[in-house]
Structure formats: C-alpha cells, structure tokens
Specification:
- The protein is globular.
- The strands form 7 sheets. The chain has a 5-stranded parallel sheet with strand order 3-2-1-7-19.
- The protein is α/β, with parallel strands linked by helices.
- The chain folds into 3 domains: 181 residues, FAD/NAD(P)-binding domain, CATH 3.50.50.60; 119 residues, FAD/NAD(P)-binding domain (3-Layer(bba) Sandwich), CATH 3.50.50.60; 79 residues, FAD/NAD-linked reductase, C-terminal dimerisation domain (Enolase-like, domain 1, 2-Layer Sandwich), CATH 3.30.390.30.
- It binds flavin-adenine dinucleotide.
- The site of flavin-adenine dinucleotide (FAD) has 36 residues, from helix 1, strand 2, helix 8 and strand 22.
C-alpha cells in the first residue's frame, strides 16, 4: 500500500481529474491529493453544455461532478483558476502560474482538449464563438436566445457532434441555422457516409441549411460585428454569430515541454500511454481526452474524446497510480441527443476500417441499430432511439466472432443469441 506521506497531484479539473481524485480516496489512499485546474468552476461535465444546459432545460448547478464542499470533505486540495505551467520530472515538481511549486510522488495529467480555431480572416470579431467551457455555454445561451428573438442567423463551421447539437439547440430557440462542412456528410469521420446522411436529413427536417464539401474562408464583419461568412465556392451566407465547431486538440504542452512521449498529430495526437495509462515516465499517468492509450483488445492506440472515457479512464489511472494492475480495455462509447433523437455508439469503425453496414430496424422512423462490420465481425454499433442494448452490442464487439448479417439485421433474433 502507498505511504500516507505521499503526494499525488492531478493536473486538470475536468471529469477525468475529478474521478481520479475520487477513486484515490475510495481506494483508501490517505496521502495528499492535490487537484489543480485552470478554470474557476469546480469540475463539471461537458455534455450538457451543448444539450440540456444550452437549451435551458437544465440548471447550472446540475452539471457539476460533485458539489464544491465535497472536495474539502474528502480532503482533496483544490487549486482552481490556476494553470500548471511546467513539470520538472527530475525534481518531481509542478509549477503553477503564480510561481508556487508543488512536489509530487505520482502525477496525473488530465488536461483534456481545447477547441481548434478557424484560421481565416475575421475570427477576432465579436460574435465568433467556441464551445468547451461552462463560461462559453453561459454566453452561447444568451446569443441563441437573442438570435431566436431577432430572427438572427447562426453559422456553424463543422457538422460534428458539437456542431449538430448546437444546431438543434439553436433551432429550439428559433434561430436560423446554416452549417458549413468540408466533408460530404455530417459526422463523416465517425459514422461514414451511410449513417451520416441520416443526421443531415434529421436536421434538414428541422430547418437547418447545410453546405457540404465547402470550406469557410472568411468571416465578414462590420463595425466589429459578424455580418456574413464566405465559403470557398464563392458563396456568402448571412450570419449574426458564428460557432467554430471544427474539433478539439489535446492539451499536450506540459507533456511535450517535459519530454514525455507523444503521439503524432496525424495519428490523433495526445500523450502516449500504455494500457495502464502510464506515460513514458513511470511516475506520470494521463487520462481522458489528452491520453492516447494502447487498447489491449483493439490492438491499436486510441485517443477517445468522450465522456465515458474520462469517467472510466480517470479512475483506471488512479488505481494504476496506487500500484494496482490495470489494463484499461473498455469499448469506446459515446452518446448524443439532438431534437427527439437519442443515440449511443459503441466501438470504433471510422471509414476505411469496415466493409459492411448492417441495419436492424427502421431508419425512416429513426428507430434502429446500425452495425459496422469487417469480414463479418462487428466493429461498432449505434443504437438510435432504441435503448438498453449497449451491453449486447459491446459483447458482440468484444467477442470478435463472425456473425450472420441477416440474423443481425433481423429484430426478431435476440442480439444476445448472436454473441459467440
Ligand atoms: C460541449 C461539449 C459537449 C460534449 N458532449 C458529449 C457527449 O454528448 N457525449 C460524450 O461522450 N462526450 C461529450 N463531450 C466530450 C466530453 O465532455 C469530454 O470527453 C470530457 O470532458 C473529457 O474530460 P477530461 O477530464 O479528459 O478533459 P476536460 O473536460 O477538457 O478537462 C480538462 C481540464 O483541465 C484543464 N487544464 C488543461 N491544462 C491545464 C493546466 N496546464 N493547468 C491546469 N488545468 C489545466 C482544462 O481547462 C479543463 O478544465 C462533449 C464535450 C463538449 C465540449
């Protein structure tokens, strides 16, 4: 067991960091736990920022991982509004922005990701937004409400999950919404063209205008305010506000500056960790959006930017820091809600990895399960408005057994019976 006089430091006050701190205590660690985050809010969950909190259905208080008093009650030292600016691996210290130096025995980097920025003229204009933080959501809520009131136009660059969820929220406020996307369908790099089109249809039915296969080249302003956007097909689209939703980049600066092994950006980027979430330094771990972990059963390195990975990866890293044998091999999982469509996705099957898509149910009614297969084996499954099937879908993925596509497509055949 780890000595009581040890100090475990966690950098990053998001879900992965908070859950790691919680696990250190629940596993009986009674040394110092120090959680350092550069945001002023105590750790919160981000999914509601583009869904319930953005639409106004959820209260601000509901997004926090724990209430503020929980940290003191569990003897977790919180440093909020403080960035860690350097890690000295030799001295085993971290330095905060105000110059404070803190020694660690084990360190967890849970620094998450940050929105990618558009590199076009006009991004300095008032009315250009990103969505990552609670403060961003506070502002965007007001913007969407005002757009809805005034018949205003929101242009969203990027038809990924966040772009689409904000489109749905904005339509709920009554704003006009145009989405500009370089790929031919929404969510192209996750779902491929077959299922991406379904999301295009969903949003078109709710009045969203799409422009696929084009790049946003300029945000046009007047008196410092957004007026329109231009795309590389020569079109101009009216805009009173712009949301850049073009993905997120892992926050690897600390790891990079301290010489930890990273993964190439072309391979997804992130801090390279083994299956126990340990970095190239045996006293430093990484979890959540920033970690590119070797996945023991998928036999590949993956950086998963999803809630469930922060929820489970933080605790897994904490257990590894305590010296437990950890092999983090969860099937990647995420969820989304848009209008009256709710979905869950398990697995990993970007275009190029699968050779067949099998659908069970009715895509027209938007009530179905889609499976992505390679040589008859299920790589991933997405249930849309069909519930309580995550476990059998994940069992099918884990089993790696070939399944009969006809039986897979037949709703009268229980999924459980197909698990090899
Ligand atoms: C708007 C939005 C909606 C989402 N919706 C979904 C969803 O529906 N389903 C889903 O599965 N996933 C969703 N996600 C993704 C999910 O929220 C992330 O995967 C999750 O937040 C990752 O948690 P994390 O703890 O790794 O990182 P983060 O939540 O990014 O937390 C990292 C924290 O570390 C801080 N930090 C970084 N560097 C430093 C430093 N040097 N010093 C101190 N602090 C630092 C950051 O400011 C941040 O507070 C959504 C994300 C966003 C932004």
């Amino acid at each position: 067991m780890v000595d009581a006089d040890q100090t475990f430091v966690i950098v990053g006050g998001g879900l992965a960091g908070a859950k790691a701190a919680e696990t250190l205590r629940s596993e009986g660690f009674n040394g110092r736990v120090i959680l350092i985050g550069d945001e002023r809010d105590h750790p919160y969950e981000r999914p509601p920022l583009s869904k319930g909190y953005l639409t106004g259905a959820k209260e601000r208080d509901s997004v926090f991982v724990h209430e503020a008093a929980w940290y003191a009650a569990h003897d977790i030292e919180l440093h909020l509004g403080q960035a860690v600016t350097a890690v000295d691996r030799e001295a085993r210290t971290v330095r905060l922005g105000d110059g404070t130096v803190i020694r660690y025995d084990k360190l967890l980097l849970a620094t998450g990701a940050e929105p990618r920025r558009l590199v076009v003229p006009g991004t300095e204009l008032a009315g250009v937004h990103h969505l990552r933080r609670l403060a961003h959501a506070d502002r965007l809520r007001q913007v969407l409400a005002a757009l809805g009131r005034d018949n205003g136009h929101l242009v969203i660059a990027g038809a990924g999950w966040i772009g689409l969820e904000v489109a749905a929220a904005a339509r709920g406020y009554g704003a006009e919404v145009t989405v500009v996307e370089y790929e031919p369908t929404p969510l192209h790099r996750v779902l491929g063209p077959e299922l991406g089109q379904l999301f295009a249809d969903l949003h078109s039915d709710h009045g969203v205008r799409f422009h696929f296969g084009v790049k946003l080249t300029e945000i046009v302003g007047q008196d410092g305010m957004v007026l329109a956007v231009r795309t590389d097909d020569g079109e101009e689209h009216p805009a009173h506000a712009v949301l850049a939703a073009i993905g997120a980049a892992p926050r690897t600066a600390l790891a990079e500056n301290s010489g930890l092994a990273l993964v190439d950006r072309a391979d997804g980027g992130g801090i390279a960790v083994d299956e126990s979430l340990r970095t190239s330094d045996p006293d430093i771990y990484a979890a959540g959006d920033v970690a590119a972990a070797h996945h023991p059963s998928l036999h590949t390195r993956l950086r998963v930017e999803h809630w469930a990975n922060a929820l489970n990866g933080g605790p897994a890293a904490a257990r590894a820091m305590l010296g437990q044998l950890v092999s983090y091999d969860r099937v990647p999982y995420f969820f989304s809600d848009q209008y009256d469509l709710g979905m869950e996705y398990s697995g990993w099957a970007p275009p190029g990895t699968y050779d067949q898509v099998v659908v069970r149910g009715d895509t027209g009614k938007r009530e179905f399960i889609a499976f992505w297969l390679k040589e008859g084996r299920v790589l991933a499954g997405m249930n849309v408005n069909v519930w309580d099937v995550t476990e059998p879908i994940q069992q099918l993925i884990r089993s790696k057994a070939a399944v009969d596509p006809e039986a897979l497509a037949d709703p009268s055949v229980p999924l459980e019976s197909l698990v090899g």
